[in-house]
Design brief:
about 55% helix; globular; single chain; mainly alpha; about 290 residues; 14 helices
Amino acid sequence: MALLVAGCGTVPGRLSPVDSAAVSGSSHRLASVEPDGVSSPAGAGSRSDQQPEEDEYDDPFARLDETTSADDTDPWEPFNTVMFEFNRTVDRYALKPVAQFYNFVLPDAVQIGIDNFFRNVRFVPRLMNNVLQAKAKGAGIEMGRFLINSTLGLGGFFDPAKHLWQLSTPDEDAGQTLAVYGMKPGPYLVLPFLPPLTLRDGIGFVVDLALDLINWLVFPIIEVKHIPSIVAHKNRVTSTIAQFGTRVGMITNDRSLNLETCQGVEAATLDLYAAVRNAYGQKRAKAVRE
């Protein structure tokens, strides 16, 4: 779960150059673009060939259903737009400059390896959500990917499970699990320093934090008696610094990988807030169907 805080980065998941070019200049409607006719942003071609596995399933800028009313899905729009602009300001003056320097220092291959590592060590929520949705094949693939990439992939830095054995499956999260059990999405919501959410996905985000064993066994933010952890429960400052540093590292790495794509999306869109909101709704509906 890469979390970008502004612009196109508020759409969860990495965007491909085709996705970025598909955003229309209309305020509440997205145009469709044939992938064969789109040219990639400068410098994005070589990077797209190495993108982590979630690219295959991302379609964040699909055509908006014209029967959908923004009033029905975004009753908190005044608050959301303020938070959205706050996140964009943070991105413009803090995150993006840091990501640009980060991108200058680290080669693309290293950044993709770091992204693979973070995804690998946080596989448990995806595994558990496959189980809770009765997706035995998806759960098996997640477990197989973890075992292969943790060993042959040098701790997850490389992804031989995908490249050698074609083992990949759509990401599953608690928001999707709640949808499978019948919970409606609820209102659209934008919060500081977080990707866009619905009320259901916000609850799911908290559930996924609880399912992540790193938050129990490595840098505990959840303390349970008689369950040991690498960092002792009493060392809360150490755990807090480690959690914060890890999150900043994930966000910076993800933003660096998306520099060209985000620039293309922002340049192609007159109403970025509406584009991100509509794209998010389409992407989440597609994820639930899968």
